[in-house]
Write a structure and sequence with these properties.
159 residues; mainly beta; 5-stranded antiparallel β-sheet; globular
Length: 159
């Protein structure tokens, strides 16, 4: 039972296969990806089983294929903050990080964009009805929320 429309990152993963993300009726995000079928000479693909990414979300997922070819998932949590989870490699196998809060108090789910340098910008609508932006830096961490007019809120901010 799904509670959101599916999301597919803008590009294929590093092996040119699709990955899909949804919010299910348990309010967690779920992930499924194509896998190469064996024997490989048939050149067919199949789908793996649904895997829970966990979390409790009030929006559908937003996803991005980063410059390193790995996927990041974002969503609006039950606390109205934006949450982020990303893939990393262990022995060439993608694994998922824990969910990390990007904070904020939002009124919508996030939209994400991968910049030319491979890092991610996250856009949301705050409860103040303004558009807010949080950008990833060259270390892969996210800075502060900034209003589209360039202002930076105090610690207890309404985005």
């Amino acid at each position: 039972m799904l509670a959101s429309a599916p999301r597919v990152p803008v590009a294929l993963n590093t092996v040119n296969l699709l990955e899909i993300f949804v919010r299910a009726s348990d309010k967690a995000y779920w992930h499924r990806c194509q896998i190469a079928s064996l024997p490989s000479n048939e050149r067919e693909v199949d789908w793996n089983e649904w895997q829970s990414l966990g979390g409790v979300f009030s929006s559908g997922p937003a996803t991005a294929l980063n410059g390193d070819g790995l996927i990041s998932a974002f969503g609006r949590g039950a606390d109205k903050a934006i949450w982020w989870k990303s893939q990393y490699l262990i022995d060439g196998v993608p694994k998922w990080s824990n969910w990390i809060s990007l904070k904020g108090i939002t009124s919508t789910g996030p939209a994400v964009n991968v910049r030319g340098d491979g890092y991610v910008d996250v856009f949301v609508r705050g409860v103040d009805k303004q558009i807010w932006l949080k950008s990833q830096d060259n270390n892969g961490t996210f800075g502060v929320w900034r209003s589209m007019d360039g202002s930076v809120p105090a610690e207890s901010f309404a985005c």
